[in-house]
């Protein structure tokens, strides 16, 4: 390699490594039975996915508490490399996260962002507004509601550009 190419490539490599180091690690480990499909696809073909494991996330729509469990309806979004929902992306369906026991709705607020790890447990037909909808059901093993600070973490405030500036 010519020395001038090395001088240009070295800073780019350092910057790439620095940006990669800023991204938090995924919060849940995938299992051999974890499938990477969106809820809308599972709703269309539930028999194809059976009782596979999933790691899904999105925006909390509502919480319903029952005698022995709670259900959190979630508008799904794709996850980033740290398993945070990409809420500025296109939604990828809805799902119901079934959790054992009582879930405090103040800890799972409508509009909040959540990531769950669990096992598919069939589907249920319900409504979204006036429309009939098929919701995949996830028996949740672990869940995490994201804070605003966590959503910003790992996103360095770095801008690149070329231009002329005037300082007065």
UniProtKB/TrEMBL annotation:
Gene Ontology CC terms: outer membrane
KW Signal (keyword) present: yes
PROSITE patterns found in the cross-reference section: PROKAR_LIPOPROTEIN
Database matches in Pfam families: Slp
Keywords, sorted A to Z: Signal
Protein name, per record: Membrane protein
Annotated signal peptide: 1-23
Xref: InterPro entries: OMP_Slp (IPR004658)
Keyword Signal applies: yes
């Amino acid at each position: 390699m010519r020395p001038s190419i090395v001088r240009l490539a070295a800073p780019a490599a350092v910057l790439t490594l620095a940006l990669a180091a800023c991204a938090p690690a995924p919060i849940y480990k995938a299992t051999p039975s974890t499938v990477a499909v969106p809820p809308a696809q599972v709703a269309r073909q539930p028999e194809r996915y059976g009782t596979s494991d999933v790691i899904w996330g999105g925006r909390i729509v509502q919480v319903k508490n029952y005698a022995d469990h709670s259900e959190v309806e979630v508008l799904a979004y794709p996850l980033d490399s740290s398993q945070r929902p990409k809420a500025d992306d296109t939604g990828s369906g809805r799902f119901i996260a079934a959790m054992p026991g009582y879930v405090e709705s103040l800890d799972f607020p409508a509009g909040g962002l959540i990531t769950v790890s669990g096992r598919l447990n069939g589907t249920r037909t319900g409504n979204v507004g006036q429309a009939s909808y098929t919701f995949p059901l996830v028996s949740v093993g672990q869940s995490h509601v994201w804070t605003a600070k966590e959503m910003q973490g790992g996103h360095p405030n770095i801008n690149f550009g070329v231009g002329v500036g005037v300082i007065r």
